[in-house]
Amino acid sequence: MSFKFEKLVVWQEARVLVKKIYEITANFPNNEQFGLTNQLRRATISIVLNLAEGANRNSDKETARFFEMSHTSIDEVVTGFYMALDLGYVSQTKFDEIYELLSKQAAKTVALKKSLRSSISN
């Protein structure tokens, strides 16, 4: 059996992003386990889950709404990584690597939303 969302490249790449975020946050201080670590992990999971949920909605308008939620979760993860950088939990190199991955994820999510919006307005 195949699900519609599994065919989305942006969903496939979001899964890779989740793994990467888990690996990086595993090195955060233990006292952040229920703080920034947890928040970053939940926001990253939200990226992939909202893509999956949106792909199976009944209308393009509903789908676009879930893709928008995925995009706002990307913004949340970027902001969290700025905090991690400021607190010394990640190096500038690691931050730049994650920032690049998140930027690409955001661009693909926006493109996906735009393709739906054009079909909604037609």
Describe this structure in words.
The structure is a single chain. With 122 residues, this protein is an all-alpha fold. It is 77% helix and 0% strand. The chain contains four helices and no strands. α1 runs antiparallel to α4 and α3 packs antiparallel against α4 (92-121). The mean pLDDT is 93.
Write a brief caption for the model.
The protein is mainly alpha-helical. It has 4 helices and no strands.
What are the defining features of this structure?
122 residues; elongated; de novo design (two linked rop proteins); 77% helix; mainly alpha
How is the topology of this model organized?
Layout: H1 9-25, H2 36-55, H3 60-86, H4 92-121
Helix pairs in contact: 1-2, 1-4, 2-3, 3-4
Instruction: Give me the Rg, rounded.
Output: 15 Å
Q: Would you tell me the structural class of the helices and strands?
A: mainly alpha
Are there runs of 5+ residues with pLDDT below 50, and where? none
Task: Give average pLDDT, whole number.
Answer: 93
Number of domains: 1
Distance between the termini: 32 Å
- By CATH, the architecture is named Up-down Bundle
Strand content: under 5%
Q: Give helix % range.
A: over 70%
Largest sheet: none
Shape, per Cα inertia axes: elongated
What is the count of helical runs? 4
CATH topology: de novo design (two linked rop proteins)
